[in-house]
Amino acid sequence: MAMFFGGNFSQTFRKKKLPPGNLGLPLIGESIGFLKAHKGDKAAAWIEQRIAKFGPVFKTSLMGSKTIVLIGPSANRFMFNDAAIGSHQPVGVTQILGPNNIFELNGERHKIVKSSFMGLLKPDGLRTHVPTMSSIICSQIEREFEGKDSVHAVPIMKRLALRLTCALLFGIADEEWDEDAMVQEFTDAIRAAWTVPIDFPGTTFRRGLKARAKIGEFFSGLLQRRREKMEGGEVGEDVVCSMLGVRDGEGKGLSESEIIDNLVTLMFASHDTTAVVLILTLRQMARDEKVHDKILQEQKKIGREMDGSDGRLTWNELQKMKYTWTVVQELMRMTPPVFGNFKKALKDTTFGGFDIPKGWQVFWVSSGTHLNEKIFQEPQKFEPSRFEASSKSFPSYTYIPFGAGPRSCPGNEFARVEILSTIHHLVTKYRWSEMVPNEPLTHQPLPYPAFGLPIKIETIKNSLQ
């Protein structure tokens, strides 16, 4: 066993107080069982079984690395803030995103990369983009729904989210990319990120690597075109130009590989997670008439009072969508788009009376607090009122759909704007119903309805009356 886990295992760890648990099989660890449970929407149960057996701090081996899973508010606070815990992704994720992606960076390099896109993602940067986003959403939905009485909602929401990311964050014109091809490449790459990283012909991981190579080629060509424009004095206000122009303290810019890795990462983070939340919201509205009608009344009222007369939303309208956002927040509590994520011990450290050796992965899990009845009463019950301003009572580091602390998701406000804008245009113009009752969720690795959420659609006349 020692030969598979590096050196003399017993001598290395005899003096350390490691958490209880099971490292599983050599090399594979418990990855196959975890990934199977995750795909079948049972990862929370997989975690709970180990908590019941070993407690809220336990060891395992996932994605090719020894891992310590930490559960609970104090564990979340520790992982998101402690200097001994740094960014890290499993080897498969790193190969898909690229070794220079922001999740792998620490210190000064992380700050430089983050600074290159934060200006566009903060509320002040987003305000001016809301009307443009509203126009894109409206035209895309009309194009997708026109002349149809039924559609598959998952691919539509993926295309919409990807188009918004390309247009607003990257400044990519419609003629510069093939929408359907890019959605497929990203779907293949994302599915490969959370698999056993075996690079054999026919495997999901091999398909993901090929897709990632094509995505990289697209961004390489995009960078070349942008450099030429910038050399001619034309500088756009988008992430691509910002990354090309950013400099560190010594005046050095980012390399092409650094830029491409982080454009890929930003596109992953900004479009697929948002598409998931939109799908979960559409599904909930189809299943719960009271929720649908309450959202509809809120959005119709906003539409009647909208600033201007062109039908485009502004920042002011988004701030009035209070009930709609409580529904979205509750759905992200019950089914967060990201189940959990990996970090890494940068040095020997401790938590909860146990040692965490340098180099080990640590894994935070959203369900550990989101579905904890001591934190959220009746956690399996859908109850948006938990998130009303007057009733919020849950402690910090318990609700973490976007992470928490200094490493929380920088795109959470962009996602909020996109989700609310899309719901407004959908619910005020269409009604829909599920064609597959009780359609299960499958995680590959994000949670989507297994059959793509086929829905019947009907156009609403006089939608704001």
TrEMBL record:
One of its GO terms (molecular function) is heme binding. Its cofactor is heme. The keyword Metal-binding applies. The keyword S-adenosyl-L-methionine does not apply. Keywords: Heme, Iron, Metal-binding, Monooxygenase, Oxidoreductase. Gene3D superfamilies: Cytochrome P450. SUPFAM superfamilies: Cytochrome P450. It comes from the Eukaryota. Heme binds at residue 409. PANTHER family: CYTOCHROME P450 26, CYTOCHROME P450 FAMILY PROTEIN. Belongs to the cytochrome P450 family. This is Cytochrome P450. It comes from Amborella trichopoda.
